[in-house]
Amino acid sequence: MDACIHRGSHEIGGSCVELRSEGKRLLIDLGLPLEAPGDSALYVPPIAGLDGSDLSLLGLLVSHPHIDHYGLLGHLSPNVPVGMGVAARRIIKAASPFMKDPLPAISEGWDYKPREGFDIGPFRVTPFQVDHSAYDAYSLLVESGGRRLFYSGDFRSLGRKCPLFHKFCADPPSDIHALLLEGTTIGRQEPRVSELMVEKRMAELFSRTPGLVMVHSSMQNIDRVVSVFKACIRRSRILVVDLYGAAILEATGNRNIPQTNWPQMALYVPRWQLSKMRQQPELMERLGKNRISLSQISSNPGRFALMFRPMHMTDLDSGQCLEGAAFVYSMWEGYRKRGDYARVEQWLEKNGVLLHSIHSSGHAGTGDLQKLVSALNPQKVIPIRSFSPERYREAFPSVEMHSDGEWWDV
Ligand SMILES: [Zn+2]
Question: How far is residue 63's CA from residue 330's CA, in Å, rounded to a whole number?
Fold first, then answer.
């Protein structure tokens, strides 16, 4: 078996790996780069058969439902089967109608079950569920021709599913020849904060805030939504999400994940989503039981916490519900430093609302990456999804660097 990183050997985002064995090929992830101005077609890697014309391409395996791992799916023929977690597939489908460029239907293919292997031509694939800021995320073991490659995908150890990391390290697959290891945090100085600490800090802020609390996070970071919800429970607030948020929570298919029909949850449909609401009346029927209006929020803003998105600003302005409010920025700080976030910060300043940063990374720190490497004991470690691949040698043994587009033996 040989392998080629099409994108990711020197960057974060847009990951794509191609594997080749006995004349057949398999893809792992087909992501859109984080910075991808213009038409997404510009970023499609040069892989034969994405249009379904080459039968040697057996399929695509998506590690988890983050755009930088699946965002180019729209450029894959529906004739090419796609594997992913069952809930991940539902989440991508639920999110699609709310995207600027909705995805075409995703091909069926393989549904992952943790540690249950399946065959695709000469490849045997075994998914391992991981703790990550995307729901239903996996590492993937691919075996072929007596060689074993382990693709870490994105993972961490400080989330709500942290036992997955420790269980994996206690019982890892053996005889790994090549480990493709994500290194998002390598070379970054970031505090290591757990998801439980996020919940605690949110609860503290909710206590000392007399007005509305707005939390800006990805609605697809289900761990984070649970943390906000638990902080709400501790401080007797109602968690308000919009229609997109309600659809994503429903798509998890997990009865333990907060849903808009729960007593301490509510649905608010902002003006810009009214057309989506009309297009999907069945969604409202299922999820709209606790729908509230802006005037209900403004009549007692201290009763609520809102999962914020910049598109809510116009509604919130007109609702006059920001007196005594607080704002929580709950994503990677790098996004905030991009120019386009200034408009949110100016809006907060104009309304006299303070911004608080409370976040836990979706990615393992160096210590946990080392624990994983030590548990797997691979013959070689290959950097992927890192801006600092040259620094892997400081942290791990047997590092072998490969550039984008280069083929190498597993
Ligand atoms: Zn991810």
Answer: 23
CA of 354 to the centre of ligand 1 (A): 29
Residues with CB under 5 A from ligand 1 (ion): 66, 134, 154
Given a contact cutoff of 8 angstroms between Cβ atoms, the answer to whether 2 and 407 are in contact is: yes
Based on the number of CB atoms within 10 Å of its own CB, is 291 exposed (0-12), middle (13-18) or buried (19 or more)?
middle
pLDDT greater than 80 at residue 339: no
pLDDT digits (tens, 9 = 90+) for 42-98: 999 999 999 999 999 999 999 999 999 999 999 999 999 999 999 999 999 999 999
**Ligand 1 centre distance from Cα of residue 112 (Å):** 17
Q: How far does the centroid of ligand 1 lie from the alpha carbon of residue 88, in Å? A: 12
d(CA 123, CA 38): 35
Q: State in Å: Cα 271 to ligand 1 middle.
A: 30
CA 282 / ligand 1 centre spacing (Å): 30
Query: Domain 195-357 belongs to what architecture?
Result: 3-Layer(aba) Sandwich (3.40)
Where are the chain's structural domains? 2-188+362-409, 195-357
CA of 11 to the centre of ligand 1 (A): 14
Portion of the chain with pLDDT greater than 90, in percent: 88
Determine the average pLDDT of the residues in 159-166.
97
Q: How confident is the model at residue 103 (pLDDT cuts 50, 70, 90)?
A: confident
E-strand spans in 330-379? 354-357
CB neighbour burial string for 173-199, b if at least 16 within 10 angstroms, e if fewer: beebbbbbbbbbbbebeeebebbeebb
pLDDT tens sequence across 226-256: 999 999 999 999 999 999 999 999 999 999 9
Q: What is the whole-number distance in angstroms between the Cα of residue 320 and the centre of ligand 1?
A: 36
pLDDT digits (tens, 9 = 90+) for 133-162: 999 999 999 999 999 999 999 999 999 999
Alpha carbon of 296 to ligand 1 centroid (Å): 36
Q: Quote the pLDDT of residue 393.
A: 97
DSSP conformational letter for 403: -
| Domain made up of 2-188+362-409: CATH architecture | 4-Layer Sandwich (3.60)
Centre of ligand 1 to C-alpha 64, Å, is: 7
**Alpha carbon of 154 to ligand 1 centroid (Å):** 5
- Residue 219 predicted with pLDDT over 80: yes
**Interval between CA 48 and ligand 1 midpoint (Å):** 26
Distance 24 CA to ligand 1 centre (A): 27
Q: Which of 231, 170, 220 is nearest to 195 (CA)?
A: 231
